[in-house]
Amino acid sequence: MRLVEKDGTPGNLDLYQEVVDINLVGSFNVLRLAAARMVKSEEVGGERGVVIMTASVAASKARSARCPTPQPRQASWA
């Protein structure tokens, strides 16, 4: 995914929107659904669950011609 294609034309905005929808909106959707179920679940050891989100530093080291995109790496359900 590029801001500017090799031929000098603007990068593909539709592709970028699709990546954001899948990675960012999809992650949020899974988290909200899981959290809603955790709130209703029975406590175990005084807790109902925890969500741990991690991120990668790879986004900050991206090539300058490329668009940064959210990249979910792992979700842990306890």
Search tags:
two-stranded antiparallel sheet; mainly alpha; 78 residues; 1 helix
List the helices and strands and how they pair.
Layout: H1 13-40, E1 51-53, E2 75-77
Antiparallel strand pairs: 1-2
Q: What can you tell me about this protein's structure?
A:
The protein has a two-stranded antiparallel ribbon. It is mostly helical. The radius of gyration is 18 Å and the shape is elongated. The protein has one domain (13-77). The model has no long low-confidence stretch (mean pLDDT 81). The protein has one helix at 13-40, and strands at 51-53, 75-77. The longest helix is centred in the middle third of the chain and has 28 residues, at 13-40. It is built from one helix and two strands, in the order H-E-E.
Summarize the entry for a quick read.
With 78 residues, this protein is mainly alpha-helical.
Q: Which parts are unreliable, with pLDDT below 50 for 5 consecutive residues or more?
A: none
Largest sheet: 2 strands, antiparallel
Taking all Cα atoms into account, the compactness measure Rg is 18 Å
Strand content: 5-15%
* Biggest β-sheet: strands ordered side by side in the sheet: 1-2
Tertiary shape: elongated
